[in-house]
Specification:
Oligomer: single chain
Distance between the termini: 57 Å
Structural class: mainly alpha
Mean pLDDT: 82
Low-confidence stretches: 82-88
Shape: elongated
């Protein structure tokens, strides 16, 4: 690869490695597996960067996330069969909460844990669109490109995923 192409790759793809890891983490439900998937996907992206026709970083994000998605599903079939039943370890993967009000911090952490567990309980196609939309803030069109489905399907899956999240979270609390 020429140095100009390498610089273009670095500018277009590398800024999105955190988003790639987030998606891989939710799809594999394992920190170690997600790192392996992102590494494999990054190598694939590098090898096939010559076929990338996008102009900017935004297009590179959707392109990389599509590669990560496909790599995660292929990796799971090859290494673990169906790893979608592996449980998410919230203590290992949650952010430490700091703040002035310890009670508020504990409540916020509990809500975060409940949300992560509820997302983990979603079927893969719902979990995928929720992560891409709500955590990675991709547009419906970008999610459709990443998932390889029509925009209408993305909208339908998001609606059903949000409804299921609400049902699960309401069942766990008495606020609903």
């Amino acid at each position: 690869m020429e140095s100009s192409e390498l610089e273009r790759f670095e500018a277009v793809v590398l800024p999105h490695l955190d988003a790639a890891y987030t998606l891989a983490r939710y799809l594999t439900r394992s920190d170690h597996d997600a790192q392996d998937v992102v590494q494999d996907a990054s190598l694939r992206a590098f090898r096939h960067f010559g076929s990338f026709r996008g102009a900017g970083s935004g297009e590179g994000r959707a392109w990389l996330l599509a590669i990560v998605r496909n790599t995660a599903y292929t990796w799971q079939r090859r290494h673990h069969g169906d790893t979608l039943t592996t449980e998410f370890d919230e203590e290992q993967h949650s952010e430490a909460t700091t703040g002035e009000d310890p009670e508020a911090a504990v409540v916020a952490q509990g809500e975060r844990v409940a949300l992560h567990r509820a997302i983990d309980e979603l079927p893969p196609e719902f979990r995928e669109v929720i992560v891409l939309r709500e955590l990675e803030e991709l547009s419906y069109k970008e999610i459709a490109e990443v998932a390889g489905v029509p925009v209408g399907t993305v909208m339908s899956r998001l609606s059903r995923a949000r409804r299921r999240l609400e049902e699960v979270l309401c069942a766990r609390t008495e606020d609903c």
